[in-house]
Design a protein that fits this description.
This protein has about 325 residues and is mostly helical. The protein has three domains: about 100 residues, no CATH class; about 70 residues, Alpha Horseshoe (Serine Threonine Protein Phosphatase 5, Tetratricopeptide repeat); about 110 residues, no CATH class. Helix content is about 75%, strand content about 0%. The chain has 15 helices and no strands. The longest helix has 30 residues. It is elongated and about 75 Å long. The protein starts with a helix and ends with a helix.
Length: about 325
């Protein structure tokens, strides 16, 4: 009886080790883009432990990317290869993974590495072969891929170069701010996030940001039931109120002039209903915040300061109260 118990225990231990070995093989195959081999290894693991959710999830991951891998091999243009991978991964993460209840520890990080390494190489090759190595949009895509792969130093270099070539792109500024956040450069992160969400919030892909700063603001606003477009405009408003966008850019007189022109234009758009109120109101409040900060820091005229505060109050009494408190 005891020998049979020992034999069963040894068999169980052997099966567990064999199961774990197949799982490790499967994840390594995913990591290196050997999708079919990964599917086979997950299948072998499932044969040993047929109730394993991890093996079942792994087969679903491999099955999804096996189809995309085949499609990728038929795309000749390197830029389109990179775009295809980024687009499919976003769908995979936002739709496929939740729908199939796949946990992050079940191979997602492994396939993520292959996807973004392959996309990075595609964009890099595209830049080199088409004389687009200094194209800020291509540098942005390369920097984003490196950020996801965890290579923050190289991502920072490429994104800083992209910003130097295009200082008005909110997408580039936001990604650089995100990298700064991930390497604990909080001052730079807050400054660049503030600028990104001032210039053109609609250009920013919120799902691509990992910063705790942005996640905290979104968490604060999740009960507001804003549309995604409205949410993007309210983020800098609440970022200011919560003190998370506390690092400010020094404005030059020409910047102030342009700011006032923009406020005048936004007010006109609000009055004639050219843009929906849910988007224009927070955008206008954010502009008033910037003007108010300039006036206060430069000891501006009290009447002008009071006039700006009144404008904020008329737009949104609650925001006005939160700002003063």
């Amino acid at each position: 009886m005891q020998s049979e118990v020992k034999r069963n225990r040894r068999l169980s231990e052997f099966n567990q080790k064999s199961f774990e070995k197949h799982l490790n093989f499967a994840k390594n195959f995913l990591y290196n883009g050997k999708i079919e081999e990964s599917w086979d290894a997950y299948h072998d693991a499932l044969v040993i432990k047929f109730e394993s959710n991890e093996a079942k999830s792994g087969m679903k991951i491999a099955g999804f990317w096996k189809e995309r891998h085949n499609k990728l091999s038929k795309i000749d243009d390197f830029f389109e290869r990179g775009e295809f991978l980024l687009r499919e991964y976003k769908y995979f993460l936002k739709d496929y993974v939740p729908k199939h209840n796949i946990e992050s520890s079940h191979g997602i990080k492994s396939i993520e590495h292959w996807v973004f390494e392959t996309a990075f190489n595609a964009f890099k090759t595209y830049g080199e072969t088409t004389n687009n190595e200094k194209n800020p949009d291509i540098l942005l895509k390369q920097g984003f891929c490196l950020k996801i792969m965890g290579d923050y130093d190289k991502a920072q270099i490429l994104l800083e170069e992209a910003v130097s070539l295009n200082k008005s792109s909110s997408s580039i500024l936001a990604q650089l701010a995100d990298v700064y956040s991930l390497i604990n450069e909080e001052i730079h992160s807050k400054l660049f996030f503030r600028e990104a969400f001032f210039i053109n919030p609609q250009e920013i892909d919120l799902d691509s940001l990992e910063s705790i700063i942005i996640k905290k603001i979104i968490e604060e606003l999740k009960y507001k039931n804003y549309s995604i477009k409205e949410l993007k405009e309210w983020i800098p408003v609440y970022g200011t109120i919560l003190g998370l966008f506390s690092v400010k850019k020094d404005l030059k007189p020409i910047d102030v002039g342009l700011l006032k022109q923009s406020i005048y234009s936004l007010n006109n758009q609000l009055q004639i209903g050219e843009i929906e109120k849910g988007i224009i109101t927070p955008k206008l409040i954010n502009h008033y915040f910037r003007l108010l900060e300039y006036l206060v820091s430069n000891h501006g005229n009290k009447n002008e300061i009071d006039e700006v505060l009144l404008s904020i109050k008329l737009l949104d009494q609650k925001i006005y109260d939160l700002y003063l408190n």
